[in-house]
Amino acid sequence: MNLTENIEKQFAEVSNTNVVELRKSAFTAFEKLGIPTSRHEEWKYTNIKTKLNEELSLTPADSQVNAAVKNYIASLPPYAFRIIFLNGVFHQELSIVPDLKGLTICSLKEAFSTHTSLVEKHFGRLINYSEEHFAALNTAFVNDGAFIHVQKNVLVNEPIYIQYFFTASDVNAFTQTRSLAIVEDGGSIQIAEDFRNASNINVQYNHVSEVYVGKNSSMDIVKLQLEVSNAIGIHTLESQVERDGKFSAATITFCSPNTGTGKPVIRNNVTSRLIGENAHADLNGLYFGKENAHIDNHILVDHVAPNCTSNQLYKGVLNDEAIGVFNGKIFVKPTAQKTNAFQSSKALLLSNDASINSKPQLEIFADDVKCSHGATVGQLDENALFYLRARGISKPEAIQILTYAFAHEVIDHVHSKPIRQFLCDKLKDELKVNF
Amino acid sequence: MLSIKNLTVAIGEKKILSDFNLEIKDGEIHAIMGPNGTGKSTLASTLAGKEEYEVLSGEVIFNGKNLLEMGADERAREGVFLAFQYPVEIPGVSTTNFMKAAVNAKRKHHGLDPMDAKDFLKLMKEKLALVEMNKEFTSRSINEGFSGGEKKRNEIFQMAMLEPALCLLDETDSGLDIDALRIVANGVNQLKSKNRSFLIITHYQRLLNYIVPDFVHVMYGGRIVKSGGKELALKLEEQGYDWIKEEVGELI
């Protein structure tokens, strides 16, 4: 049985009976699209088909809470809100969801029955599953995920922490997880999505986040991909931003696989559609790749309405034989006059065998806009290195300090203080910088 | 303290220093003057260990050790300090963190434990006062957005923090207004001691009104062509370098 037949057979067994018509439609789209190969322009540098197992299992795998999961949860900062999934299955007993007026946090499965009209209004509506292979697959198969809803004018001050653990005991599992976050007009929220392989085998997962940012509201999402070294992880984050809305996404990836055993691939599709006037999007990212890590960031800001602004700031540090891919798109529709869009991609290559494929792509159909992009690939600044050494700091330590400084800018943009601090510590840890 | 013998240095194919000789004893202040392009900054950078500069021959002995065998960082830990002509901006690293790393690297080299946080803050406060800088400077990224004068004061601050034996000042006075010059010079004067020597490279005699040198040397064509006391600097200020060029013309 080939991969497509296998997936078709499994679709017949999907047990979730919510939004059945939408799922069928998404599955039909997937059948047309299939799993992409490097012949697809958007997957040119990431031949995902050759990486995924043939015998994919899309139904949720066993989700026993293991010691790795418990230890990690115990090590987390005391976030006020946390919601935990193992292999796509919600674990109420590990989650903390205090009542807050105007805020709903629950599993998507629960939301389908308790907030039916709200979920159906947005679920599968924000992503473009007729064109995106993995968004289609996810929509057809997803079993559960996080649902977050912020009512009009409600400001949530503490970050919401969503943890997706993968503990697959089945090497064929291809876990489909999903978040749906809605902030209504005038609301505000900060969310962290943390993806973590809590097993000692390679895991495969496909995650979709759909995000709706209402008028004059704000949402910050930090995607943490810090323990995904032995994983194939495909992430799609699609946001729609209304008039005067502000959206920011920071995607932080640390990928340092164990030599020989892993074939890690992290792919991020991050899209923001600015559909109301004066909307703003920051799409930032930081990635560290070691050994044979493969980290692919595809970013798109779609300027639909006039007077909107957007920034893309991506920084990468690649060592050993790691491969990075950056594809940053800015689309400016004919309606989007007075757009101000900026993009910057910088990669540090710390070894001769590391590589980056960087491709800015600006498609501008309005005539009164400001768009700029810049891409640099390089090594550390020799003058800066000498300056530190001239103060007695050894060369290896100077390299660590300068790498820290290079990377820190992205973390500096994270709005949530506890998450920023968490990332700062993680970065120091990773680079063995002790100040 | 420092003994430079027959030092010849090149960048690429170009010889910059040739047969350079200089002796500096403990506690002495030497000034080196000279027209542009005579190798003054090359001398400073070579002593600090910048790798583009290739030493073709000669030796440099610093407190009994062969300086040329050490990397830039080891020289610094042994007590050589270069105040840069063009201090480097490093976004993302605060001066506090930079100094913490530098001070502790030196302490480790000399077999000492890292300085505890309280002592470190106290030391910073004391040394900041020396160059009339406030604490806010140290939480900013190294030299980022600093004015010319602030950058040079930061160099002297770092010098004070690291308590070197040999201080190399590479045109620290260039481009400074009179207030900044006074502050920088005052900082240097307070750091003078019988165990600490200075090599001050400058274009202008003006700095030497504030920091009084024991010796003034004139560099030309990659070597010292004339030495004297502080009165030599005054003569250079009044008469320029032409008379020196004439005097030594046939030697070059």
Keywords:
heterodimer, A: 435 residues, alpha/beta, 2 domains, ten-stranded mixed beta sheet, 19 strands, globular, B: 252 residues, Rossmann fold, four-stranded antiparallel beta sheet, 10 helices, 39% helix
Write structural notes for this entry.
The complex is a heterodimer of chains A (435) and B (252). Chain A has 435 residues and is an alpha/beta fold. Chain A contains nine helices and 19 strands. In chain A, strands 2-1-5-7-9-11-13-15-17-19 form a ten-stranded mixed beta sheet, covered by helices on one side. The longest helix of chain A is centred in the C-terminal third of the chain and has 18 residues, at 395-412. Chain B is of the alpha/beta class and 252 residues long. Chain B has a single domain, classed as Rossmann fold (3-Layer(aba) Sandwich). Helices cover 39% and strands 28% of the residues of chain B. Chain B has helices at 40-48, 72-78, 95-109, 117-130, 136-139, 148-162, 178-191, 207-210, 230-239, 242-248; strands at 2-11, 14-24, 29-33, 54-62, 65-66, 80-83, 90-94, 141-142, 166-170, 197-201, 215-220, 223-228. In chain B, the strands form three sheets. In chain B, strands 6-9-10-3-11-12 form a six-stranded mixed beta sheet, with helices on both faces. A four-stranded antiparallel beta sheet of chain B has the order 2-1-4-5, with helices on one face. In chain B, strands 7-8 form a two-stranded antiparallel ribbon. The chains are: A alpha/beta (435), B alpha/beta (252). At the A-B interface, α7 and α8 of A face α2, β7, α3 and β8 of B.
